[in-house]
Amino acid sequence: MRISDSIRLSFNALTSKRLRTSLTILGILIGPAIVVGLTGLTLGFSAVLTHQLFSSLSPTDIFVNPGTNVITSYTVQQISHLPGVKSVVPYYLISGTIQTPSGPEPTEILSIDTQEASLAFPGLTLQTGTYPPLTSTYGTVVGYYIAHPQYPGQPTYSSGQTITVVMNTPDGKMSKTFLVMGNFNEFSSAFADIDRALIVQDIIGQQYYGDKYSGLIVQADSVSDVNKVVTEIQNEFGRSVSVTSVEQFINLINNSLSAVSSLLFIAGASSFIVAFVGILSTMFTTVVERTREIGVLRAIGYTRRGIMVIFIGEAVLMGLLGGIAGVGAGVGMGYLLTSLSAGGSGGNAAGPRGAGIISSTHITPVFEPTFMLEVVLITVIFSLLAGIIPAYRASRIEPAVALRYEV
Questions:
Q1: What is the C-alpha separation between 182 and 190, in angstroms, rounded?
Q2: What is the pTM of this model?
Q3: Its family (predicted)?
Q4: Are 191 and 183 in contact (CB under 8 A)?
Q5: Which residue, among 206, 201, 244, 167, has the nearest Cα to 72 in the 3D structure?
Q6: Are 107 and 180 a contacting pair, CB within 8 Å?
Q7: pLDDT digit string, tens, across residues 334-357
């Protein structure tokens, strides 16, 4: 008996029962489709987050936020003298609401030295207008979605217009009117939701908070110095401050998405168990229906091993076809889900202050060929295991009994 003969007999057996074979393959492909589709979507999401972090922030940025103590000018001075530190940019982040004809709209006022901010945020660029002068107490540059509202009925603000904001300050709610001097291009960041914020000079924050800052942006001399500077700040201040670098942001995102991916894989793996049971049931039914055929094959010289190879071959072929079809379906599902999500307003991932990292950004799923091959291989192995017991049972049928068997 040649292997090619066994494969041919296995293939002919599958094509003779096309409906049953198709339904079994359909049950098999669900597992690979779920695993490949959702994993590709997760990898694509991770790639977009990483790209946006590196494109919007400088890789040398280090963010220092208050821990057990407030951040003051003394903190700024101490960090400035640490080796490897290029600059320290303090900022104030003030919550507030924009007073519009349709009602108040929540916003944040980022009070910062705009010259330093442009270095810390290389992806933050002006669409129109200019930054207010360093000593300006009334000029502002508005975020993209303040100048270009996402929803109908909201007012637009462009250069030359005024915008009134009620700010939450230590002295209570304070109303202030700013002159819009420009607006930014769309900017997604883990630092703050700049697209829905007002950027003003740091002199305005000083009026309300003095030298008690919301946080610091520390720039290291080079990317290689980042971890060293982070360690130095932690050693110097301990738990009185919270320190996060762009690299740590990315590691946190990747770790979180890896955990999600693992959960999705486990959920998809349950479908493999269902497929295993489906193949087992199909193969047992096939053995019963082909008992006389088994007797004929044994009578013309097929060995017990040859009978096992035929039935195991059927299971493996179904697993291979189901695995390949499942991978293809998973790729299609990944692109379908991203196209459906593109119709929405985009996802929001939380940064250190709940800021949106992704804003109406299309996610392209990422499919790794090696992973897809592994999924097909796992599907074939499950099918092989499911076919062993029915195949063994078929090989133990005696020829004389099989030839007398009536279905």
A1: 23
A2: 0.61
A3: Belongs to the ABC-4 integral membrane protein family.
A4: no
A5: 206
A6: no
A7: 888 887 765 544 444 333 444 444
